[in-house]
């Protein structure tokens, strides 16, 4: 699993569900993914894809791994901040960072906590959320390590015991 991105380590069904949500709630995402599938070739026509329901389009995007690294980041943010904020809330509470249902206050600048607080928060997330918590830690290390010093060492310790 160490070679997979945090997003790609999610089950296909979970990725499809995230992408379906994005396709139905973010206006421009449908056109972006349709354009990406058409550009890949393989006989896809934009007019045909436009008529597909969101879940079918999402399944095809996931099947073809058509998500970019920026898409992955946005979909993980959708997961941890908007759809399932419990893991992020656990992390922020344990780190002592002000938030509202997993959303960090706008007036706080990174780094959001010192290394001791980030390490304590990582332990809380891992204890309370198991493998989903570890995936969350991997997400922070990959995309936002500067905001959470010390998490790379935590993740290295987790990976060495896996």
Care to describe what's here?
The chain has 162 residues and is mainly α. It has 2 domains: 12-67, no CATH class; 84-160, no CATH class. The chain contains 8 helices and 2 strands. It has helices spanning 12-25, 29-39, 46-50, 54-63, 69-83, 86-95, 115-144, 151-160; strands at 99-100, 103-104. The chain has a two-stranded antiparallel sheet. Strand 1 and strand 2 (103-104) form a beta hairpin. Helix 1 (12-25) crosses helix 4, helix 1 packs across helix 5 and helix 6 (86-95) runs antiparallel to helix 7 (115-144). The termini are close together. The model has no long low-confidence stretch (mean pLDDT 94).
Q: Low-confidence spans: pLDDT under 50, at least 5 residues?
A: none
Give the number of helices: 8
Looking across the biggest beta sheet, what order are the strands in?
1-2
The major beta sheet can be summarized as:
2 strands, antiparallel
Radius of gyration over alpha carbons? Answer: 17 Å
Q: Could you say which structural class the secondary elements and strand pairing correspond to?
A: mainly alpha
- Counting structural domains, the number is 2
Shape label: elongated
Order of helices and strands: HHHHHHEEHH
How confident is the prediction overall: mean pLDDT? 94
How far is the N terminus from the C terminus? 10 Å
Helical fraction equals 55-70%
Residues in β-strands, percent: under 5%
Query: Strand tally, please?
Result: 2
């Amino acid at each position: 699993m160490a070679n997979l991105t945090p997003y790609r380590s999610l089950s296909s069904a979970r990725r499809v569900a995230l992408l379906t949500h994005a396709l139905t709630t973010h206006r421009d995402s449908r056109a972006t993914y349709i354009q990406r599938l058409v550009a890949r070739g393989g006989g896809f026509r934009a007019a045909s894809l436009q008529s597909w329901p969101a879940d079918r389009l999402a399944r095809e995007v996931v099947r073809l791994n058509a998500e970019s690294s920026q898409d992955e980041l946005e979909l993980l943010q959708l997961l941890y901040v908007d759809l399932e904020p419990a893991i992020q809330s656990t992390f922020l509470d344990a780190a002592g960072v002000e938030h509202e249902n997993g959303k960090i206050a706008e007036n706080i600048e990174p780094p959001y906590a010192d290394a001791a607080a980030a390490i304590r928060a990582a332990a809380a997330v891992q204890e309370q959320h198991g493998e989903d918590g570890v995936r969350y830690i991997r997400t922070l290390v990959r995309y936002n390590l500067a905001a959470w010093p010390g998490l790379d060492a935590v993740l290295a310790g987790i990976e060495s015991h896996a």
